[in-house]
Amino acid sequence: MQSWSDVAIPSVPGQGPPLRLFDTADRAVRPVTSGDTATMYVCGITPYDATHLGHAATYLTFDLVNRIWRDAGHDVHYVQNVTDVDDPLFERAERDGEDWVVLGMRETALFREDMEALRVLPPRDYIGAVESVNEVVELVEKLVASGAAYIVDDAEYPDVYFRTDATEQFGYESGYDHDTMMRFFAERGGDPERPGKRDPLDALLWRAERPGEPAWPSPFGAGRPGWHIECAAIALNRIGAGFDVQGGGSDLIFPHHEYSAAHAEAVTGDRRFARHYVHTGMIGLDGEKMSKSRGNLVFVSKLRGEGVDPAAIRLGLLSGHYRVDRPWTSEVLAAAEARLALWKQAAALPSAASAEDTVARLRQHLADDLDTPKALDALDGWATFAVERGGDDASAPGLFADAVDALLGVNLR
Fold this sequence. Notes:
The protein is of the alpha/beta class. The protein has 13 helices and 14 strands. The strands form 4 sheets. The protein has a 5-stranded parallel sheet with strand order 5-4-3-10-11, sandwiched between helices. Helix 11 (356-367) packs antiparallel against helix 12. The chain starts with 19 loop residues before the first strand and ends in a 5-residue tail after the last helix. 48% of the residues are buried. The mean pLDDT is 96.
């Protein structure tokens, strides 16, 4: 699947401290110990509609991780999927009377445009579920052969399910108790009441063909992939088990990330699918989480169409800490637009006070679990002083602009 255009990143002198991120599984901020090549898998969209601000906040978070790694001299192997075959896509296509393939292609194209406008660094591998069906079939075969999965004894729909007890460590990633798992499983695409399952929490790996649904051949009969196995297969075949960061929104902690990890671990025998599980908070509007069910989604493309600078959208979403549920309001956007104007004014000065200490603080705050509020405050302080007082360092505005571009993804020129 085609990704979007790459973004040139300025080189900034110096280096910051090693990156530390909150790990959901360990419930603590820990160092991210990457090798020469840092590896990251972030779950992508289901393209029944395009990029709302909740999506954007998630991908901006992991764009910061990507930029921090690159600033530290790492090569980065970033993988992202597109769930371009799934129930929400079919439901939206049926509602609107259009082909689900056409809908998915159109919304994926709009998503790429939004990511490019927001200056998000593209993944090295951008993989759709449809193009990875053969990989999913191979992984499901291994799970069935090992006894980690079974075929439901149903003559009409012989679906394949993962055994929740196939790994001893199941549940370590979320840390949820059984009742919480059951609640989220039912709310987030699970089927606890499916007859024939051995355990209500067993997760679908392969859905046998139903009338009117797309299907692909497999040794267990025609059908299509389950949701969680898709990400396990794509990640294992691109960056392998034990990669540095698996990322997504906090609503993916369970069941999606718990099961994708368990599917992979049941095949590889590894203790952890990823070294770090990193999750972002939700973006709300009028005191409620943005969601399709509430009909309160704010789309990046709509804001762009209204003339909002994508850099201001980016700064507005980065003004809160990535792990915190936070609102999007007209005040947030206005503050971001004022901040962007101030920074551009400071970057356009012929000279200003030295920016080296400010750049060092920017790196320090970002390395400390992506503390963007403190990072933005540090940059505000320098920009305000530069505009009000000036200075005699002609290289300072250029260094400031380069650092903001390289580390925050905001072009001030």
